[in-house]
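Figure S4 source data
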Amino acid sequence: MLTLGRTSAYMNSKFLQILILFCGLLTVPTVGRATETPALWRAGRTCSDEFRKSVLWVPKQDWSPRRLAYFARYLATDHAAEIYGALSRTKPVNGRVYVKMYEDTQMTVWAIKWEQNGTGIHDHMLSDAGIYVMKGYIIENRFQPPASAPIETNRYAKGDILEVPKGTVHSVSGDGVTLHIYLPKLDVMTNYQVNPSGLLVPVGQEQDNAP
């Protein structure tokens, strides 16, 4: 009876997680699954087979940033131990720890540990993003170039989600852990700086080394 009870509780937990993912999201994409080539999977993933199966179980092309954020919450809830473990085994770069958990031809999944630091001002070009705060907090500043002052500043705490539509120019800082999903997969970002005239302008692009 004890075994049956634990099995029932586990199934109920999985069912609730799926409900969380789809709650309030009534438009179901009618597209095929991602193409996951073995070479790209080996080169672009840090995750276990269980994490990979969770990513691939449903089609994701054309998902909105909100739906990506709910899916990030689902993955973070279901695979928290694996995500924290991957971060703990990774050395910080520029004051942050970041791990590419997974990538295929459609999407990229990053885990980031923030240690009271942040990014520069950037965009994700053609990629939408959904972010889930697993621990601590992050602060996002959004910009509308060429104005150099933020047009919006928001703080997100543990349990919050953040939607980042493609083309959004922003910076992120904080102290905590977040899980990020990018669709289409994040290949290139544009960096911005304030020029001598006080205008926020693009200053170049970089490959997807960290979001």
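Figure S5 source data
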Amino acid sequence: MHFNKSKNSRLILTLHIAILYCFMILKTLSLESKITMNTKISNALNSFSTESTLQSQTPLDTEHTLSLSGSAMREVETNLIIIGINIETLNLILKDSFTQNSQTSSRVTKVFEQMGIPKNNITTTNYEITPVYENEYFQTNNSYVSVFKGYQVKNQLAVTLSKKRLAADLMDKVVLSGPVLITYVSFGFSEGFIKSVKDSLLEKATLNSYESASSIAKTLGISIEDVKLISINDFQWPMSNQLNFQYEKGNISGAGAKMAPPTFYSGTQWVSINVGVTFVIVKE
């Protein structure tokens, strides 16, 4: 009986220990769960706080702009003259026609060298060899017959001069070199000159736009802070004009006397540009 009582006491003690252990585990789990939730809440609050802060830092006012157009124009004169030269030979024998053309071309090239014309100012625009036929009338049978006249060799050149006063002298010397024909004179503009004029007009047109914007800003009580965008809406450049005519040896050696060289006037033309400018504006 004593043995059983001792055994029961140990059993009760064990049960108490087990209950206490379970209680401690449940308390630990509850604490961990509480910590996890607190962390989530804290993170959520922090996230909400961060978003609120970022939102408050975002500027309420957006960028304000003022867009206007500007224009400028200028009178310009061509700075180049281009001369068309046709070296043309005809012979029944192809080799002879070719040789004669080559010899004349060499004399023309020598004229270029003597006048100090750079090689990059000389362009071959066309070179061709063609058989030539002409219809001739024969009274005996009252009909036209195609007759072979020979082989024609054409060497066509374009010479660009920046000194227009040399044009007349060049034409005289070239046509005296052989079977040479001046076919046209064209007035044009160099790329460097076009760029220089365009840059100058762009600056003036932009300033014209700025003056208009400043006037509007003063009236509205605002300030121009910066330039956001400049775009070219229209740029009108005059076309080169060409004078087609025939000038050959007979024009300067007729009647046994040298005629006065031709004089060319290119005249002036107007160039214009239109731009669009967007300004950044702020309240004063």
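The CA atoms of residues 133 and 148 lie 4 Å apart. The chain is about 40% helix and 40% strand.
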